[in-house]
Design brief:
The chain has 331 residues and is α+β, with helices and mostly antiparallel strands. The chain has three domains: 3-44 and 189-322, Elongation Factor Tu (Ef-tu), domain 3 (Beta Barrel); 46-79 and 155-187, OB fold (Dihydrolipoamide Acetyltransferase, E2P); 81-153. Helices cover 26% and strands 37% of the residues. The chain has four helices and 20 strands. The strands form three sheets. Strands 2-11-14-13-12-15 form a six-stranded antiparallel β-barrel. A hairpin with a 4-residue loop joins strand 17 and strand 18. The longest helix is centred in the N-terminal third of the chain and has 36 residues, at 81-116. It is rod-shaped and about 130 Å long. The two termini are 41 Å apart.
Amino acid sequence: MMIRALSIAVAALIAVSPAAAEPLRVAETAVDDLKAVFGTVESIDTVIARTRLGGTVGGLSIDEGSAVEQGQVLAIVRDEKLPLQQAALDAQVTALESQMAQAETDLERARRLRESGTIPQARLDDAQTAVNVVTAQLAAMGAERAVVRERIDEAAVVAPAGGRVLAVHVVNGTVVMPGEPVAAIAADSYILRLYLPERHARFIDVGDPVLVGGAGLAAAGQALREGTVRQVYPELSQGRVVADVTVSGLGDFFVGERTRVFVTTGQRSAIVVPAAYLYQRFNLDYVRLEDGREVVVRTGLPVPGGDGIEILSGLRPGDVIVLPSDRGDDA
């Protein structure tokens, strides 16, 4: 059963105002049996920035961990032959333009001579054909020059998506071929990927909330955050079911970092009390009974969806607790 359905039921029982909840008779209730597993921070999409032409890498402006935006220039691939090809084509275009000017002059002269009957029609047709040939040659040469210019523009290696650079595969001066990878980029959307034992497959479903720990070695003292299962893969991998969880704030994690994730694996009976009935003294958790006695309790995880805290020991069903008159950590 999903955590959300149970948490709503528990919240309906315990998430009431303190005035309405005093005194509170302790009773067992059905809660989700949460198990701690490890989730790995991964990017939903990992894209590769590749070269579009061969040459020598220069102007490399990124390193591992750099933040990049879509379309940002990461490096320049220089091919010394391309400027020479462009210069050669420019010279040929200039020569053809001169030939075009001469052909148009000859055509105009042939037209005047034909009008006076000095030359036959065949001479006029030859002059017109010469103009047409040079015009076609100019168009072809212009297309070739545009191709070279486009290849020169492709020297820039751009980021196909915004995100963080995971790996850089080249350095300045590296000789590359077209299509070689320059950098691997993790897109800005991250998920937690879970690998659960096969026996847990029937308990997890899309939309289920989960509890996620913090990042780093100090995660044990941080508050748990709630995430949501966004996808459960239909194929088992090495006896494990794979699921993806979305949770806010994963940009603070390293890609590949692992963190604790609490998922439901069924139901069990437990004692849950509102957090307002708990107070601390000397780093111990206490509750106050109706007869005025103070009882040390051992607390568990908070119940998702409400302010309830699971009591592992110290209370029994039937005990009546009240709100503490003065709470605080005296340690």
